[in-house]
Amino acid sequence: MKKIFIIIPFVILIGFISFRVFKKDYVSPEALEMMISYLASDELEGRELGSVGIEKAAIYIEAVFEKNNIKPYFETYRNNFKWSAIDAYNIVGYIEGNDPKLKNEVVIIGAHYDHIGVADKVGDDGLANGANDNASGVSGVLLIAQHFAKTKSNKRSILVALFSAEEKGMLGSAYLAKTLKEDNIDLYTMLNFEMIGVPFPDRDYMAFVTGYGLSNMSEKMNEYSDFNLTGLSEISEERNLFKRSDNLPFYETFKVPCHTISCSDLSNYDYYHHVDDEADKLDYDHMTNLIKKTIPAIEAICNTPTKEIKLYNE
After folding, report:
1. CA 64 to centroid of chain Cα atoms
2. Which of 64, 78, 96, 306 sits most deeply, having the most CB atoms within 10 A of its CB?
């Protein structure tokens, strides 16, 4: 009985948060700040794998999916796997394409929702809340997903994947990539969103694409958005960030363009895996602008008659 008493108020709270987030303009600084402030709150304990906090984050994501009539891809939203003795789960939603033929092709948009839990203390604070890493990416993906769930403007089908165990070595994305490969899906491309919470002060683009030279993804996103949205980060190339996020297992498994979109190459944000990675450090106007300019690019990716984004070695 005690466990039920704890869970019921939390579910009510989730419904309240979701209602407030999506009542007004769903891509707005207010919506983003509300989402990130919850996902990066002390209540979620840094969203470490196996914690009560990551379960609360999963329930929140599921509530957003349900609120927007985004269907589970599997029997439930959860794609379950194990890490050692710990139960872990990706959260996966499905937005079916509206074209009888193209709906059999799949575009994945994703982000990891786990974090490291704790980090070196600063004063009395030992929680690594993970606002930029990666409540920002999760919130961006959820708002992009809501756009497509509302407009139904995608001819290709969209998988909305929020990954767990990225911080343990991209285990969640590796498991989902393996599962989808066994299901023989026709994956066109995968866009992963990682640390999009702060702008670059000195770049002529908003975000960089990891693995820039592997495909024409960046060029096509700029063409589709009619804006200099993405570009090359030499720092990302030097630090090989292409191999450090959840795009990698899909690239290795499917051999198609799979990239991470990010605004932090570890040169413009001082709080990576730090207790001060808090919601109040982020720039919500920047994130709103980024998401609003990214949506037309994803819309074009979902709707071109042929697969225009290609690996350069094809």
Report:
1. 14
2. 64
